[in-house]
Amino acid sequence: MGTDIDHLLTIAEALRAVRERAVLLTPRLCSLAEASGYCLAEDVTADLDLPPFDKALVDGYAVRSSDLNAGECRLTVGEEIVAGRTPTRALAPHEAAAIMTGAPLPPDADAVVMVEKTRRDGLDVIFEGGLVRPGQNRLLRGREMRAGDIVLRKGERLNAPRLGLLASVGRSEVLVFPRPRVAVVPTGDELVEPQVVPGPGQIRNSNAVMLQALAGSAGAEVCSFPIAPDERTGLRSALERGLSFDVLTITGGVSAGNRDLVPEVLQSLGVTCVFHKVQVKPGKPLWFGVGPPRGDAPGTLVFGLPGNPVSGIVGFLLFVRPALRALASPAESLPIVSRRRLARSFAHSSDRPTYYPSRFSPESAGAEAGIEPLDWAGSADLRTVAQADGFAVFPAGDRHYQAGEVVDFLHLG
Amino acid sequence: MGTDIDHLLTIAEALRAVRERAVLLTPRLCSLAEASGYCLAEDVTADLDLPPFDKALVDGYAVRSSDLNAGECRLTVGEEIVAGRTPTRALAPHEAAAIMTGAPLPPDADAVVMVEKTRRDGLDVIFEGGLVRPGQNRLLRGREMRAGDIVLRKGERLNAPRLGLLASVGRSEVLVFPRPRVAVVPTGDELVEPQVVPGPGQIRNSNAVMLQALAGSAGAEVCSFPIAPDERTGLRSALERGLSFDVLTITGGVSAGNRDLVPEVLQSLGVTCVFHKVQVKPGKPLWFGVGPPRGDAPGTLVFGLPGNPVSGIVGFLLFVRPALRALASPAESLPIVSRRRLARSFAHSSDRPTYYPSRFSPESAGAEAGIEPLDWAGSADLRTVAQADGFAVFPAGDRHYQAGEVVDFLHLG
What is the pLDDT of residue A190? Predict the structure, then answer.
């Protein structure tokens, strides 16, 4: 009945098995107003030169620089070119045009002098700044982009400037990889909903809201199911519905206990088990499989997470989050890990790599902040994890870590 | 007509003026399923001890440690205690109870032996692991929290573990500071919507979608208005509607040009100007004011951002994002800045502090990544900013910066 640790997949092996099966979702058109955070599923080209004309970069006066550089400091003001208007004629010698930021320069003007360096005198304008560099405060047509240039590439994630750029090349819709649709199914007869006072042996369902938030933060659209019972018919009906989603996450029902029906019911629904356990602490009893194809779409990725809340979080961050990202982005998708200095010493002892709730040290700030392992009561202790920024990673083995040593850190956010 | 740089507010002065006027919004009840990302507006206490009983941390056998430590290695299996069930009687001497992770220990049991270290033999179980520490694999009642403990405090931002913790103390709703409601009003006769091919002197409205994404990422609920004209009646009607929101951001219409009606129309609607220009590049012509009180609610915070897209982004990150955070969180809210090493040298020359689009250097990764200023064509050049991770900050003055020097970096995301 004993399980030999050597027979379990390592985290890297399990992650590879998940990523191999996480296939990019079919792209769909999305309006710009809704596209923030999505990854582009097409290359985007410019439809026009930008700027479409030689353009003023400041409010002031368009001039021929040769006039001022020849010693003139007073020019006659001709046209006034406000934004949205086009000059009607070329600039005559010894003439200036009042111009607003963003407006087109008149032909033969080659520079703009800021209004702050000028003084108006009746019909003339007096320049107080001395020499003018040809091209000063002028943006040449096409400097930003030429029609036909690729300005954004497939796979780039849409943020505010990229959305602005799409608008500026005439796109009001764009092809993106959609958000994965995720079903969260809590299981277990011992669970009651949060508003219920738990009776003897019962615990409140904290996993559903937690997984919903984790999946939502990872960019998924989440549907949270009611608690499914530890009983074949009810469980089967919930899991069958869950198999219409891109990803099905089940909490509870996958540990070594004898009432764990989840793997059995999944199998009866055509879900193929890829692995069951992983060399990780907490979260060893993690179940992963793939459902039958859904028409043209590939089968649902099915994750059975341990019912212990913190085991579930670690399993999610290590395996589900990378899978969700891989469904929605062609970029390589791995757990979000950085290297961090331990702010205090720590004694670690386990035959499995261990993820230990830790927070950024309040004494050091920003990107270089050290991390402090927290005083933790084990994998049900959410109160401590609620103060964590992530998990310090200690490799398998028994060792005393000194303050200042650098370890991997798995980010929660 | 010249503007003396000394008369403009510094960034710090302008930010202080904004933050003084950004008052926390009135708390509201929110269901857990919708509360991710919000800040708590109440202290939350535990309603019960957790765990509510001495609990098994692994699947295995509950024992009296004294039996095994006295030399026994075979005990009779009595009850089977699955999760969700309560033991019906105390453990007799020389007896073990099969127990699942999370189930309550029977009275008189003081340790749990993992199933992997045992072997079943008919009605007995044989222990192969040697000595058992009293308390091994047992979590004592109340170890995580005691009824009445404050488990989360006002101001803490709700993430997945904190939501799970709220569920575990019986909360299905919680008091939070709501998301600010933001109106985005683009102005300018030169603007056309993205799907239109711009005529001479026209440019596409890239600001609306960009500000919508920036405000959304900063946690706001955003309403994007159609383009308002450079004409009193139409502009007034749009801005009047905008003054029903918590924050009104207007793009365009606040530079030194003579058709800038925005400040005038705002004043006629009872908006008090707090400042107009700031010592910053790009983004100097930034307008900030406060609208008349809205019933019991304070007046709308009104930001007039420059129409140049990159000036608008910098103004947003420096002033609007901190304001949005201050409306929704009691924590100190400042622009998101870190200290970063320059990955290449850079010559800077300006009488204003300058925010220069830069990206994380591909050669160095993670928290310690250096930054590279990008080759930028000025404040309309979104194509370059679309490849940036933020803005390197160069103080006013003329200076050559060496690669390796450390500067402030304003984060885009």
Answer: 84
